[in-house]
Amino acid sequence: MDEPLSGQVNMARDHALLSALGKNEASLRIYGWKNPTISFGRNERVRGHYDKKLASDEGVEFVRRPTGGKAVYHDRELTYSVVLPSARRWGIRSIYREINCAFLESLVSLGVPASVAHHSHRSPHVSNSGFCFQGYAAGEVIVDGKKLVGSAQVREKGSILQHGSLLIAQEQNSLERFCFERENTQCEGNGTSLIEVIGREPTWGTLVAAVLEGFKSVFGGEWCEVGLRETEQEAEAHFLERYSSVSWTWRK
């Protein structure tokens, strides 16, 4: 578990864990955000769509992820990243299912009436340039038809990174405030949060413990808590140049 870090460091660290994964290894990282941050999917087109001055005035940062998907507003949430060999239990889709099952076990243990979506859903009023939590795909964790955990993946050199957000508070509507084309975004169906579902905010320690137990139950194996190794630190320094770059963040 990491202390809250900037969006640039968070993305660089996730990518470093992916690039430096050793043989027969896997990692789970749980973290937060030093400042409210809007993250974009790797290939999402956002240039000219967001009011950077307004965001700066309100202390909101921007970063582009190594993974795909749509924009996410990060603040009051539990963020996770998992790095695994891509061959684990038959590949990408299996890994996606296993991670969602781990979250499902975690949430049910906290009294959250969560389930796994059997089919995809997207509001007909949302444009293709919408936000991550405006719909859900088959296999994602939902409560009463609204997404609670949003995730994205990337594969690199035989390993897979999946990271995403478990919303503690519902703040995804904040995305609309920083968009120039507000009439086209329509922040409808923008997910749900733990506070909305169970009427309270679990302590950070309680939430982290539940997530860890869910992952241990689903993935098994031997677990240990370690800091960054030297190879991971070197990789993080390398990737930090990319994720701190304005040209990378606003490349599309």
Keywords:
single chain; 252 residues; alpha+beta; BirA Bifunctional Protein, domain 2; four-stranded antiparallel β-sheet; three-stranded mixed β-sheet; 33% helix; 21% strand
Short overview:
This protein has 9 helices and 12 strands. The protein is of the alpha+beta class and 252 residues long.
Question: What features would you describe in this structure?
Answer:
- By secondary structure, the chain is of the alpha+beta class.
- It has a single domain (7-249), classed as 2-Layer Sandwich (BirA Bifunctional Protein, domain 2).
- The protein is 33% helix and 21% strand.
- The protein contains 9 helices and 12 strands.
- The chain has helices at residues 7-19, 52-57, 92-109, 174-177, 182-185, 194-198, 204-219, 230-243, 246-249, and strands at 27-31, 37-40, 61-64, 72-74, 77-85, 115-116, 121-122, 135-136, 141-143, 146-147, 149-156, 159-167.
- It has a 4-stranded antiparallel β-sheet with strand order 1-5-12-11, with helices on both faces.
- It is globular, with a radius of gyration of 17 Å.
- It starts with 6 loop residues before the first helix and ends with a helix.
